[in-house]
């Protein structure tokens, strides 16, 4: 009886070790997150002119709120800076 208990215990330990090793191997394999082909200005324009929920999902604000935020910036003479336009700057800030 002791031998069968030891065998069952050993099998359990081995199975747990295999599970832990498999988990480590699977979790160490990186899964790409940002795979969208557009970047920079193209991505911002895609957000502004694409599906309405996409803006909320990516920037945390709805499209009309984004546009309301950009208008006072233009009015107060904020401009494009170092090849980054104002819409992109606001999107970076919100992201």
The overall average pLDDT, rounded, is: 83
Our measurement of the CA-to-CA distance between the termini, rounded to an integer number of angstroms, reads 63 Å
Helix content: 55-70%
Low-confidence region ranges: none
Number of helices: 5
Strand content: under 5%
Biggest β-sheet: count, sense, barrel?
none
Radius of gyration: 26 Å
- What overall form do the CA principal axes indicate? rod-shaped
SSE succession: HHHHH
Q: Which structural category do the helix and sheet elements fall into? A: mainly alpha
Q: How many separate structural domains?
A: 2
Domain DUF8040: 37-95
Protein name: DUF8040 domain-containing protein
InterPro entries: DUF8040
Organism: Serpula lacrymans var. lacrymans (strain S7.3)
Molecular structure report:
InterPro entries: DUF8040 (IPR058353). It comes from Serpula lacrymans var. lacrymans (strain S7.3). This is DUF8040 domain-containing protein. Residues 37-95 form the DUF8040 domain. It contains 5 helices and no strands. It folds into 2 domains: 1-31; 41-94, no CATH class. It is 69% helix and 0% strand. The longest helix has 27 residues, at 2-28. It is mainly alpha-helical and 95 residues long. The model has no long low-confidence stretch (mean pLDDT 83). It starts with a helix and ends with a helix.
